Amino acid sequence: MSTQERPTPATPASGSPRTALWNAMKRATIMMVDDEPITLEIIQMFLEDAGYTHFVIVTDAREAMDTLERERPDIVLLDLLMPHVTGFDILQKIRHHERFEHLPVVVLTSSSDAPTKLKALEMGATDFLAKPVDESELVLRVRNTLAAKAYQDRLTYIDRLTGLPNRQMFIDRLDWAMKHAQRYAQTGALLQIAIDRFQELKEALGPSRADGLLKGVGARLDDACRESDLLNVLSETESSAGLARWGGEEFSLLLLGQLNPDSIARIARRLLKAVHDPFVAGEQEIFVSLSVGIATFPDDGADIDTVQHNAAIAVRSLQSGQTSPHGAFQFYCKELNARTLTRLDMESELRRALDRGELALFYQPKYAVATESVVGAECLLRWQHPERGQISPVEFIPIAEETGLIVEIGYWVIDEACRQLAQWQATGAMPRQLAVNVSAQQFRHHDFVGSVRNALARHGVAGRHLTIELTESLLMRDPEAVAAMLEELRALGVQLSIDDFGTGYSSLAYLSALPIDELKIDRSFLTQVDTRAESAAIVRAILALAHSLEMTVVAEGVETAGQLDFLKAHQCNAFQGFLFSRPVPAQDFATLLRLPSGASARNEA
């Protein structure tokens, strides 16, 4: 080996745009396969002088593929002429391996024979170096090859929105981690992280701001994985962590080491804390919570699909329950899987419920505040299962929304409401209006206005007897398209109402520009309206706003005489709630309609 001073390779200046790439390349794992130890030592020395630090040395070619599987290098320097297994054989196996078919392979050969070099290139070699290796040429070819790989990896494995590893890279890492955990008796954990109510937030914010929110959440989670308290947990358990964007509103965190439930829980709590402070979208503060489902391996699964499935089950279990304003995490257990299977059974049965006539409408009477007489009702969906009895909407409505069945069911509800109106009209007991809740999915369906028009025409009902109730968040998405649809509905004579007013994100300026007839005050504001000054002030403000915009106001959830007295004192138009009546079937509501004005009795229950 020559003792002359070797030239120092050029490196990017500190702070240049290439610095981050250069630092990443220096962390690359370089695998060298050669049966000549001296050659390997020289190559490693040259590359160490260039700043590389991670090397995998293979002197027995028969071990090359197993080592490749275990170490997952970024580049392979492969000698062609070796005993037992040739470099050509190894190159062929690499190019036929699904995971390594695009892995950079630089072949080393002392042959000056052009056909040998051509054969290697035809078999998929990325580049080649002649022996004895020249240091400058070696460093240049390795650097250029790794730079090309880094660029290609970014296109293939990095999520463009957040800059985090994407699902494809994460699955590759998870596969490696599971094999590593099995080989070295370690514990791994997959934390599936979902943003709660994200679709609702997206409808309110619009696609661009929703993307900004996703980017912000990803950045906070990434920062949390680098902060000292989380790093301390990893250090204590000799563990590592890797965050990725799974897709949609979900992220994934991979943990590997000497983990236990307590250390995993501490990390999960740190993730929840990371999004505690509000995000800012425009001039608006947005509060976000997370649901974190946790599956460990090998305990919760011995393969990728099972671990992913079980982590997803834990997330869905959290989100199908009452969402905590501060988020929550949950470990997978077999009982959750049983619940998931039950939900799948319910989905199948719900698909058949319409055809079997198992769905029915109940009617929550709506009363005039001044006269306490029935003026209409809100239609509420009920499911009478032949074996399980009456199933709560809390159980089946979320399933209908997740599966898209809510659109078909929603059309049935509108048609059934019109059919019932026509029947009451024929008997002379006609309510002023029936109100129907419409989901965002149904409202956005291409033929929603047409379905309302057809239902009214089919049953001969005037549009003024039907009220469509929409949420604030639905109205805030794509304002121009929403306004156009509302005008089409108004042209049919249909009345329009904002349900649960005060719980969404509506702009008062936008609200005043829409053809809205009615606001419904959410029951949460009525709970302490007669005992807390703050609640009373909010309700008075909503009443003043609505009346100034010439809208009627309906109070939901009235359960006490004190609440009703407050509404009378402040000129609320109508109310509904258990004080006078619970939801009732059609025949009982018809009886209420026939009562003379002012004769409605308060609920004795």
Enumerate the strands of the largest sheet in spatial order, edge to edge or round the barrel.
Answer: 13-14-16-17-18-19-20-21
Instruction: Detail the poorly predicted runs.
Output: 1-17
Largest sheet: 8 strands, mixed, barrel
User: What level of helicity do the residues show?
Assistant: 40-55%
- What fraction strand? 15-25%
Report what the structure shows:
The structure is a single chain. This protein has 605 residues and is an alpha/beta fold. It is 48% helix and 20% strand. It has 24 helices and 21 strands. It has an eight-stranded mixed barrel with strand order 13-14-16-17-18-19-20-21, surrounded by five helices. A five-stranded parallel beta sheet has the order 2-1-3-4-5, with helices on both faces.
Write the SSE topology.
Layout (H helix, E strand, L loop, with lengths): L18 H8 L2 E5 L3 H13 L4 E5 L5 H8 L3 E5 L7 H9 L9 E5 L4 H9 L4 E4 L4 H23 L9 H18 L2 E9 L2 H8 L1 H18 L3 H9 L3 E8 L2 E8 L3 H14 L4 E3 L2 E3 L3 E8 L6 H17 L7 E4 L2 H23 L2 E10 L5 E12 L3 E3 L1 H11 L1 H23 L5 E5 L2 H5 L3 H12 L6 E6 H5 L2 H13 L3 E7 L6 H6 L4 E4 L1 H4 L6 H16 L3 E4 L5 H9 L4 E2 L10 H9 L11
Parallel strand pairs: 1-2, 1-3, 3-4, 4-5, 11-12, 14-16, 16-17, 17-18, 18-19, 19-20, 20-21
Antiparallel strand pairs: 6-8, 6-11, 7-8, 9-10, 13-14, 13-21, 14-15
Helix pairs in contact: 8-9, 10-11, 12-13, 13-14, 14-15, 15-17
